[in-house]
Amino acid sequence: MKKLSFAEMRAFRADQLAFMMQTALTMGGVAHLQMLGMNIFIISEPAVTRELLLHHGHQMHRDPFVSRVFRRFMGNGVFVAEGKSWQRQRKLMQPAFHALRIRNYADTMAAYTQEMVAGWQPGQTVAINNELTQLTLRIIAKTMFGVDLLTQTAALGALMQEILTIGEAQLKKTFLPPTWLPTSDNRRQQRALRQVKALLRQIIQERRLSAVDQGDLLSMLLAARDENDQPMSEQQLLDECVTLFVAGHETTAAALTWAWYLLAQHRDVLAQLCAEVQDVVGDTAVTFDHLPQMPLLEAVIKETLRLYPPAFAFGRSVLEPFSANGTHFPQGSVILFSVYATHHRPDLWPQPEAFQPARFLDKENGPDRYTYLPFGAGARICLGNMFAMMEAQVILATMVQHVTLALAATEAVVLDTVITLRPQDPLRLSVQPVAAFAELP
User: Fold this and answer.
1) Taking 80 as the threshold, does the pLDDT of residue 441 lie above it?
2) C-alpha angle with apex 113: 106 to 373, nearest 5 degrees?
3) pLDDT tens for residues 336-370?
4) Angstrom distance (rounded) from CA 324 to CA 302
5) Of 176, 203, 212, 421, which is most buried with the most CB atoms under 10 A?
6) Could you give the CA distance from residue 336 to residue 354 in angstroms, rounded to a whole number?
7) Cα 435 from chain centre
8) Contact in structure between 32 and 39 (CB atoms under 8 Å)
9) CA distance readout (Å), 147 to 141, 156, 260
């Protein structure tokens, strides 16, 4: 065990990503730290991650501080729910993300992406993270609620951005003011949340009256029944809708931003990807059936998620003491599973800092689910992982059909690690037609 000095505590708070990576390299895959009397374990050893998540999940809950922040706008949604409440909600929501259901969303993803790139001009500079965030917001609104943010309830996207921005600020605080305290952030967040729920309540009520399955996620949630043949309550529906709206766009936008950041620096991979998409898709729209025929496309997404996992870490709080893999975890301990450190360990990944999509082309010798875990692992693995992978592939393939992008600036990119791993500032890329690919510097 290592007791952190005040300087080390400041370093931990200033840059958790760098601190966890350095700790993993110097103290190993199970690093036991103590900060102001609190036991903290930073885990980057796949075998230990597996043991803890598979066999001791019932003895751990999500990080309590993070849960308190998210519960302010997600209520008791599946992301923050625990125990029997979580089990019930997870079971009710699982069918909505079945592969046969989500494959129908690919056409919407491709169409909206085409509309986005059609609005760009050659030579134009775009803030790619902002563009992709707006795109994925529009996609989740359509695939979840059947509404188009370009023409209907456009306020929904703006309100959710307001709620998330305040949530990010709250995560940075040492002290989280109670919700009843009329601080500026509390008032703004609660006002935005009331408006979001009013819009969602109207959509839900209209859908219930029509009783028509429109093929979106909301239709599945309305049809879901538990073991007692009971549907979700309206409050639970609202909580889950807000949860999925938040989780359904932020991480995919971040992943695609990093994909273009990497491809813009590795023109050889970008050229191979353009050729693959052209050979398989040609000038037609990308569909779900095209995806299995484009292994490099999937490998590029997976390697991006290895280097820049949007969910770069996740925490657990120990409910009762237990021992695992020779380590004792006292009650009240905080366990931080460092996905980023696991993905960057040189003993697990040859040349871990290099962008090498070929790592994922060999299906038989790929990494196991605890060495590579961009969507988490164990019972609480991301519910929408198949949706996210499909969305990322459809969007990226559609983009490289029509444009190529080059870095518009040479400044180093600073990492933001508040909720998801993303660039701190807008990532500006220059738009070029695919025909001009060979002329890029």
Assistant:
1) no
2) 60
3) 999 999 999 999 999 999 999 999 998 888 888 89
4) 30
5) 421
6) 25
7) 33
8) yes
9) 6, 10, 28
Indicate which CATH number applies to the domain containing 180.
Answer: 1.10.630.10
- What are the helix (H) ranges across 94-154? 99-102, 106-118, 128-145
Tokens coding 386: 């198949």
Q: Provide the residue type at 88 as one letter.
A: R
Which ranges of 211-294 does DSSP label H, i.e. alpha helix? 217-223, 234-247, 250-265, 267-281
Across 119-219, the runs of DSSP E, i.e. the strands, are 125-127
Q: What is the DSSP letter of 388?
A: H
Residue carrying structure tokens 């708070």: 13
Residue 152 pLDDT grade (very low, low, confident, very high; cuts 50, 70, 90): low
Per the structure, the count of domains in the chain is 1
Token output for 39:
């036991």
Angle formed at CA 60 by CA 313 and CA 321, multiple of 5 degrees: 120
- Percentage of residues in the chain with pLDDT exceeding 70? 96
At residue 40, the 3 state secondary structure works out as strand
Which range marks the domain in which residue 65 is found?
2-439
Q: Which of 81, 61, 94, 82 is nearest to 236 (CA)?
A: 81
CA distances from 196 to 192, 209, 246 (A): 6, 20, 12
Six token digits for residue 369: 């689910």
Handedness of CA 64, 65, 68, 71 (dihedral sign): negative
CB atoms inside a 10 Å sphere around CB 26: 9
pTM to 2 decimal places: 0.91
Q: Within 10 Å of residue 323's Cβ, how many Cβ atoms?
A: 9
Q: Which residue has 């399955």 as its token pair?
A: 213
| Span 293-323, pLDDT tens digits | 999 999 999 999 999 999 999 989 999 999 9
CA-to-CA distance for 153 and 202, rounded, in angstroms?
Answer: 11
Q: What's the rounded Cα separation, in Å, for the pair 94 and 103?
A: 15
